[in-house]
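Typical record was shown:
=====
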Amino acid sequence: MNKEDIKSQILSLAKDYAACLAEENSHKEKKYIPASGKNIGAEELCNMIEASLDMWLTTGRFNDEFEQSFANKLGVKYALTTNSGSSANLLALSALTSYKLKDRAVKPGDEVIAVAAGFPTTINPIIQTGLIPVFVDCEIGTYNIDASKIEEAITPKTKVIFLAHTLGNMYDMDKIMELAHKYNLWVIEDSCDALGAQWKGQYAGTIGHIGTYSFYPAHHITMGEGGAVVTNDPLLHRIIMSFRDWGRDCWCKPGCDNTCHNRFNLQLGHLPHGYDHKYTYSHIGYNLKITDWQAAIAVAQLKKLDKFLAMRKANAETLLAGLADLQDYLILPQIAAHCKPSWFGFLISVKDTAPFSKQDMVTYLESKGVGTRQLFAGNILRQPLIVENNVQLRIGDSGLLNSQDLTEADYARLPRTEFIMNHTFWVGVAQNNTPADMQTTIRVIHDFIGAHK
C-alpha cells in the first residue's frame, strides 16, 4: 500500500474505534449530571490523527484553517489562536501597552474598569501589567456589570473597560460603547464564556476593540487547552501576534520567511541596518501558540458550534420553564432585551427570604448527583490573590486603596457582588447533558425546596 492507502485505513479504523466508544458510553449509567463538559467524536479523532500523520509539531495547516474559519464565523478580520483563554486575556491587555499605539498606549498606573464577581484571569492581567483595577458592582439576574454605575467610576486615568460576559449572557454593549467613545477608552470583551452570544445580531467579542475566547473542555467548543483573540484593527492584530510570538517584530508564520519582502532591509531599534527581521523583537512577549493537534480538534468542533448552542438553549429553556413556579425562593436568569445568550451555565440565586441557604441547596444537589459551580471567585476582593498581595485598586468612585487594608466597609461598597458570593450558583446546560438530565435537575430542586418549605 502507498501512504494514502495506509492513511485511509488508519482513519477508517479510527472512525470504527470512535463508534465503539460511543456505543459503550451509551450503555453506561449516568450517576452525575456535570455542570459543564465536552462533546467530541470521530471527526475530532480523525483530525487529530491527520495532524499527527503530518508530523508538523507547531501551528500549521489546521491552525490556519481554524483561524480563518473562526474569523469568518464571527465576522471579524483577524483571529489569532493561543494556548488558553487566560493567555488570550493576557495578550489582549498586554497589546494595549505597546509603544506602537503612541499616545493611546496604556501605561502603569492607568485604570481599568472591572468587576469582582468573575474569573481571576480577567483581573490578573490588569495587575500583571501594572494597571489599577477599578471594581464596579453587578446586577442580580444578569450577573453582569451594572452599566449605570460605570461613569461615576471613571477618572482621567481610566483607559480600558475590560469585562467578561457572564456565562453567555452579554452586558449592555450599547452603554459600554457609548462610554468608550465619550471617554476615549479601549474595550476588551472577555467572551470566554460567551462564544456565540449576540447583541443586536453581533457576536460577543466583536463589538469592542478586542475579543477573547476559551476552548477549555468546559466551554462551548473545545480544543483541550486553547483560546483565541480577535480584532478588526490591523495594528492591534500585529501587536497581539508579536506578544504571542516571543515579542518579535516579524509577522511571518512558522515555516514562512520574508513575508514583508524587507527581511534584510530594515533599521529598527539600535540594530545594524539589515539585521534579520526574523530575529528582531519589538515587545517583551511570550510564546503562547498552540499545536496543530489542538487546532485540528477545533476545526471539527467549530462545525458543530451552532448545534451545540441550540442544545444549550433548549436545556436552559427547559430549566426556566420547570423552575418558574419556585420564584418565591429562587432568582432565575434574566436576559437583556437585545441579547441572544449562548448559555454557558444556568445561574440560580437563593433569595434572602428563603428558609434555606445556598450552601444547603448546593450540598443537597451534589448529594443527588446534580453538579454545581460557584460564580467563580465570588467577590474576588476577598480572595487570597488580592488579600495577600500588595494590590492597589479602587472600588467605584473611591480613592486608591491597598488590598491588604480592605475592611468590611470596603466590601460593602459592592453589595450585589457580596450577594452573588453568598447566594448564587449554577447548574449545567452543556451539550453533554440530555433533556432527561434537565428533568432530573428540575425534580431534585423541587424535592429540596418541597422539604424546606
Summary: The chain has 14 helices and 16 strands. The chain has a mean pLDDT of 96.
